[in-house]
Specification:
- The chain has 223 residues and is mostly helical.
- Helix content is 77%, strand content 2%.
- Strands 1-2 form a two-stranded antiparallel sheet.
- α1 runs antiparallel to α2, α1 packs across α8 and α4 runs antiparallel to α8.
- The mean pLDDT is 87.
Length: 223
């Protein structure tokens, strides 16, 4: 996000001069958007999930809430108008980060539900294994995210001066770099979000199964 804010929203690409006031304002707002919506989303997720009545259905909605704004960013960049619409850029980012924050509560609920479902279907207590796999996947995602993005930036030709932090390539290449930035933060999350949504539609625990599962586990506890 900060790369696009600097070069797409705060820089005159004809001269390469960065408007530091704009950059400070937009990057400050972006920092707030990466913090407040995550916390606020977690707070409002509980009553919303109760109203929806199905944690996985809620998660699927949140996947689309994350994916669609990213797709809008990519489309606007391809149309050549995104750099002229900084507030729409920030609004899309706010919607996405809020959806990410809201995902913690239903995600945790589904994690627990999966452990119960394993007991319900197979009669075996493997909560430790499920929890370990969940943690492994989470840490793997974090590691991939931290390592792959710098490699992608180098692969697309975004090289910076080690002393100044400025783009070391030709200024004429920057419009192409901006397109690649949006591919990374727009198109790729959109595609993966839609794929995740389609995968999650095969989640086997419906409200009917959920009711039977809870009744069965409750009966087993009583006996």
């Amino acid at each position: 996000m900060l790369y696009y804010i600097k070069w797409g929203l705060s820089t005159d690409l004809t001269t390469g001069v960065v408007d530091n006031a704009k950059f400070a304002m937009y990057s400050g707002i972006a920092g707030i958007l990466q913090f407040i919506p995550l916390i606020g989303g977690t707070i409002i997720a509980v009553p919303i999930m109760k109203k929806i009545g199905d944690p996985m259905k809620f998660l699927r909605i949140l996947l689309l809430m994350q994916a669609i704004p990213c797709g809008i960013l990519f489309l606007l960049q391809i149309l050549g108008v995104l750099a002229k619409m900084p507030w729409l850029f920030l609004i899309c980012a706010a919607i996405t980060t809020t959806a990410v924050g809201m995902g913690y509560i239903p995600g945790s609920t589904v994690d627990i539900e999966i452990m119960d479902y394993d007991i319900y279907k197979n009669g075996k207590e493997r909560s430790g294994l499920c929890n370990s796999m969940n943690r492994f996947i989470s840490k793997t995602q974090t590691a991939i995210g931290a390592s792959v993005i710098p490699m992608i930036l180098v692969a697309i030709g975004y090289v910076v001066d080690s002393e100044t932090g400025d783009f070391a390539g030709e200024l004429s290449q920057m419009p192409v770099m901006l397109n690649w930035f949006i591919v990374i933060m727009g198109l790729v999350p959109f595609v993966l979000g839609v794929v995740a949504y389609l995968i999650e539609r095969s989640y086997p625990i419906t409200n009917d199964v959920r009711a039977k599962m809870r009744a069965s586990l409750h009966k087993a506890e009583e006996s």
